[in-house]
Amino acid sequence: MRAHGLASQAVEWTGARYADTPTVEDEIWIDARPERVWEIVAAVEEMPSMSNELRAVEWCDGATGPAVGARFVGYSKHDALGEWSTTSYVVECTAPETLAWAVTDPDDPSARWRFTLRPEGAGTRLSQWVQLGPGRSGLSFAIDAMPDKEQKIVFVRLREFEAGIRRTLAAVKERAEAAR
């Protein structure tokens, strides 16, 4: 399915459990060079303006941008999950190709996120990917409270991530193409 330049693979009911470390990925073609797209993706502190959940980002330890080992705190809000903050660790940073971070613990993350940029024609193919778990997260508490609903809880969260990824990719595209 293609809509608004997004190549989408909608999350399908798979009966996945949290321990399966399920993933969601989507991509978009952007009429801008990878270096321009990278400027937007690497400005992690600007991501809240492209997200329904993420409210603010602060770099830690004097960092001002992504580099392997750099940390940032993200402040989020969700109607059903409340408000929380997490520390993320940049685990891969190769400009202008890949930016990835692990949430909470780089060795046992509650989630992993990644942007991948590939030159394509006169533009860039940008993908965003997320993996739940394997470390515990706020979602784990919901699953603990309702273990019989785990698969539905995971499915709903993956659908929310899918919608968030689509929104982020569309916003990056709009910003990168507006700068031409």
UniProtKB/TrEMBL annotation:
SUPFAM superfamilies: Bet v1-like. CDD domains: SRPBCC (cd07812). Coiled coil: none annotated. Pfam families: Polyketide_cyc2 (PF10604). This is Polyketide cyclase/dehydrase. It comes from Pseudonocardia dioxanivorans (strain ATCC 55486 / DSM 44775 / JCM 13855 / CB1190).
